Automatic annotation (TrEMBL):
It comes from the Bacteria. Its EC number is 6.1.1.3. Belongs to the class-II aminoacyl-tRNA synthetase family. This is Threonine--tRNA ligase. The lineage of its organism: Bacteria, Bacillati, Actinomycetota, Actinomycetes, Pseudonocardiales. PROSITE patterns: AA_TRNA_LIGASE_II. GO terms for cellular component: cytoplasm. One of its GO terms (biological process) is threonyl-tRNA aminoacylation. It catalyses: tRNA(Thr) + L-threonine + ATP = L-threonyl-tRNA(Thr) + AMP + diphosphate + H(+).
């Protein structure tokens, strides 16, 4: 594996500046392209799995987090409140209270359940400077988050479906989990009262047949969770994806649905994140692939290399025909230097007099192999099919 902090800067994917602050990286154009491609993939994956996407503000009243339990049990991880117009507003440490209120915004029937709400939203953690590092541990987080509101009878199947979705995404991204972990409470932590045994039993059933470690002291304050662990280039583990069963917040926010019997019932809230934070996911992708991203994620998918100024007009003509392909022309410097510079680009096309004169493209792949010259339209169509988002 590779150190994403070093390689990410070498490749011009992200950077930092002391005037912005520690743990607050910015994204450069190529990094923003990788991030956007990842976000589009997850959005489409969720949509096809029956999730409906929402947007909610990154601020909330302190009272919101007092009700959810974050203020009393996770206040040390939150930024201080801001006094605005006689109210105290805080940067949210989590999206789940907002989604609980979105659920509560309308009357719900059992026919609507399971209701799957997803969002790629900002959240903030007041991390100490000593634990910050690259994209893995930051203070401003873009979280791929979702909450499923369902009946008790549905929660195990929904949790299993969420785990299957996570594993499918890992296959598409080329990520291998370091391990699966069942995160449990311990005797000394800050946890709410609730039906922990039932929640733990549900997650154990979901993990049945998979190797996993049960670890005490790693549960969320409101419930146990399945954590999918990844490892960086130094072997340090962190959590990327998670599935959590929550009986606490539906009760705190008074969430209800009308059952088939006409009576009101309390839903279960399943927390689920496919790739966790976008920052940590991109860090893992940089390290796993060494910057040689799968074609659909690569910031540049095709690089056109005219041998001389005489071939430059044809290269520009090809560039105009690339459509949705992310392509560029590299015409400065020796051909060998340009090929080495683009070694991580999935496809490079050397354009000489033969190609320019006959409307051809000759492709060179990342592994150094070359494909026979073919018509430009055929080659562009082939690349487009091969870099299509999974």
């Amino acid at each position: 594996m590779h150190d994403h902090r070093k390689l990410g800067r070498e490749l011009g994917l992200f950077g930092t500046d002391p005037l912005i602050g520690a743990g607050l990286p910015y994204w450069l154009p190529d990094g923003a392209l990788v991030r956007h491609s990842l976000e589009e993939y997850v959005h489409d994956l969720e949509r096809r799995a029956g999730y409906r996407h929402v947007h909610s503000p990154v601020l909330g009243k302190r009272e919101l987090y007092e009700i959810s339990g974050h203020w009393s049990l996770s206040r040390d991880d939150m930024f201080p409140p801001m006094d605005v117009g006689g109210e105290q507003l805080v940067l949210r440490p989590s999206l789940c209270p907002h989604h609980a209120l979105i659920y509560r915004s309308a009357g719900r029937s059992y026919r609507e359940l399971p209701l799957r709400i997803a969002e790629l939203g900002g959240m903030y953690r007041s991390e100490l400077s000593g634990v910050l590092g690259g994209l893995n541990r930051v203070r401003a987080i873009q979280l791929n988050d979702a909450h499923v509101f369902c009946t008790l009878d549905e929660v195990e199947a929904e949790a299993a479906a969420a785990l299957a979705l996570i594993r499918r995404a890992y296959d598409a991204l080329g990520i291998s989990p370091a391990r699966f972990r069942l995160s449990l409470p311990d005797d000394g932590g800050k946890y709410v009262q609730g039906d922990w045994d039932r929640a733990i039993g549900i997650l154990r059933s979901v993990l049945d047949g998979l190797p996993y470690d049960a670890v005490e002291g790693e549960a969320a304050f409101y419930g146990p969770k399945i954590d999918i662990q990844i490892a960086d280039d130094a072997g340090r583990e962190s959590t990327l994806s998670t599935i959590q069963v929550d009986f606490h917040q539906p009760a705190q926010f008074g969430l209800e649905y009308v059952g088939a019997d006409g009576a009101k019932h309390r839903p279960v809230m399943l927390h689920r994140s496919i790739i966790g934070s976008v920052e940590r996911a991109v860090a893992q992708l940089i390290e796993v692939h060494g910057g040689a991203f799968p074609g659909w994620l690569a910031p540049v998918q095709l690089r056109l290399l005219p041998l001389s100024a005489a071939e430059l007009p044809y290269a520009r003509e090809v560039l105009e025909r690339c459509g949705d392909l992310r392509a560029e022309i590299a015409s400065e410097g020796s051909l060998g230097a340009r090929i080495r510079e683009g070694r991580l680009v999935p496809y490079q096309a050397v354009i000489g007099p033969r190609e320019a004169g006959n409307g051809l493209l000759s492709l060179r792949l990342r592994d150094g192999s070359r494909l026979d010259a073919a018509g430009a339209a055929e080659v562009l169509a082939r690349i487009g099919a091969e870099v299509k988002r999974p």
